[in-house]
Design goal:
Number of strands: 7
Structural class: alpha/beta
Distance between the termini: 30 Å
Radius of gyration: 17 Å
Strand content: 15-25%
Order of helices and strands: EHEEEHEEHEHHHH
Largest sheet: 7 strands, mixed
C-alpha cells in the first residue's frame, strides 16, 4: 500500500496558485487511473487507485498548507503505511518552472507543508516529487509568490511540469525511487531567452501595507 499526497490549499480561490501544483498532480494521477470521485476522509479528499501495479491512496489535505501533517499523519497511521511508501508532491521555489526533481528525506527548506509533515510523521524518510515554480522577482514576498496564480506565458512550462511530475510518481511506483531519480533528476537543457522574459508582473498590494489579520491568514495558507 502506498500513499501519494499532493500539497496545496483548499478553496476555489487557490486552485491555480503555485502552492497548489501538488493538488493538480494528484488530480492528474486520479484521471489517468480512473480513480473516481474523491471522498472526504482524514481531513482531506481521498481516492483509491491502482498505479504502476501498486495499490495507492491519493490524498489532498484540506487543512491548509501549514497543517498538512494533521491530515497525512492520521492517514499513514490508519493504513499502517511506512514513510518510505509515502510520496509527497509539492511546489519548490528553488527549482525552475517546468522542471521536476526527486528526493528522499532531508529538511523542509522553509516549506510549511513539509515542516508540518516532518512534525506529524514518524520520520522524514518520505519521498518527494518537487515541482519547480521558480523564485519570485526581487519585489515579491515569497509568501505572496506561492499564493499567486501562474502567468499566461508560464502555462506551457507548467503543463510540462505537471505531466513530468505525474510520470515521476508512476515511475517510482513501477520501478522504484532509485530508477526514478536517475531518470528525472537529469539537468534540463537551457532554452534561449526570448524578448520580454525578464518582465514580471508586479506583486499584489504593491506599495500597500498589509494589516495583521490579513497577514496571519496568508501565513496559515503558505
Amino acid at each position: 500500500m502506498w500513499l501519494v499526497v499532493g500539497l496545496g490549499n483548499p478553496g476555489r480561490e487557490y486552485e491555480d496558485t503555485r502552492h497548489n501544483v501538488g493538488f493538480k498532480v494528484v488530480e492528474a494521477l486520479a484521471d489517468r487511473a480512473d480513480a473516481g470521485i474523491f471522498q472526504k476522509k482524514f481531513r482531506a479528499r481521498t481516492a483509491r487507485a491502482t498505479i504502476g501495479g501498486q495499490d495507492v491512496w491519493l490524498l489532498k489535505p484540506e487543512t491548509f498548507m501549514n497543517l498538512s501533517g494533521e491530515s497525512v499523519g492520521p492517514a499513514t497511521g490508519f493504513f499502517k503505511i511506512p514513510t518510505s511508501n509515502v510520496i509527497v508532491v509539492h511546489d519548490d521555489m528553488d527549482i525552475e518552472l517546468g522542471s521536476v526533481k526527486l528526493k528522499q528525506g532531508g529538511g523542509h527548506g522553509g516549506h510549511n507543508g513539509l515542516r508540518s509533515l516532518k512534525a506529524h510523521l514518524p520520520d522524514d524518510g518520505f519521498l518527494r516529487v518537487r515541482v519547480g515554480v521558480s523564485r519570485p522577482p526581487p519585489q515579491w514576498d515569497p509568501a505572496d509568490w506561492v499564493l499567486s496564480p501562474f502567468h499566461r506565458e508560464e502555462e506551457e512550462a507548467l503543463g510540462r511540469a505537471l505531466k513530468e511530475a505525474a510520470g515521476a510518481v508512476s515511475t517510482i511506483l513501477r520501478q522504484g525511487m532509485a530508477k526514478a531519480m536517475n531518470r528525472y533528476n537529469r539537468t534540463p537543457k537551457k532554452r534561449a531567452k526570448k524578448p520580454g522574459d525578464e518582465t514580471q508582473a508586479a506583486p499584489p498590494n504593491d506599495g500597500a501595507v498589509e494589516d495583521n489579520e490579513a497577514k496571519a491568514e496568508r501565513d496559515t495558507k503558505s
